[in-house]
Design goal:
The protein has five helices and eight strands; from the N terminus they run H-E-E-H-H-E-E-E-E-E-E-H-H. The protein is an alpha+beta fold and about 120 residues long. It has one domain. Strands 1-6-5 form a three-stranded antiparallel sheet, with no helix packed on it. A three-stranded antiparallel sheet has the order 2-4-3. A two-stranded antiparallel sheet has the order 7-8. It starts with 14 loop residues before the first helix and ends in a 5-residue tail after the last helix. The mean pLDDT is about 95.
Length: about 120
């Protein structure tokens, strides 16, 4: 997978052996827009309101999926299945997850994304 604005390529087949490095690590934000929230709620057969109560935190004017703490300075998205090392809502994951590793913060820092993602080629 390539992106014209980035100096690296991404091999998505590396995800199976990775263990979910992009889904866990330091605490942060997993941003979701309303339509993404509605899609995730529908996928889980929940109302948007119930989904929001269980899985979202409001950060100023935006929403982020909650995290679960796995260890010291080790957090994971609430939808990361640790035992299977995969996303439980993969088909409806937020755009932030869909666009990894082509994030703006990595555009000029290839080494940072290489350290995090074994699929960078």
């Amino acid at each position: 997978m390539t992106h014209a604005q980035y100096s690296y390529d991404f091999n998505p087949s590396a995800c199976e052996a990775c263990g979910g490095k992009c889904c866990r690590g330091e605490s942060g934000y997993i941003w979701a827009k309303y339509q993404e929230i509605a899609d995730m709620a529908a996928y889980l057969e929940m109302s948007v309101e119930d989904f929001a109560t269980m899985y979202l935190r409001k950060v100023k004017h935006r929403y982020s999926l909650t995290e679960k703490q796995l260890g010291e300075n080790d957090y994971a998205c609430v939808f990361f299945d640790v035992a299977k090392a995969r996303c439980m809502i993969y088909t409806v994951r937020p755009n932030q997850c869909r666009t990894f590793p082509f994030w703006e913060q990595f555009k000029h820092n290839e080494q940072e994304v290489r350290d995090e993602c074994p699929g960078i080629i």
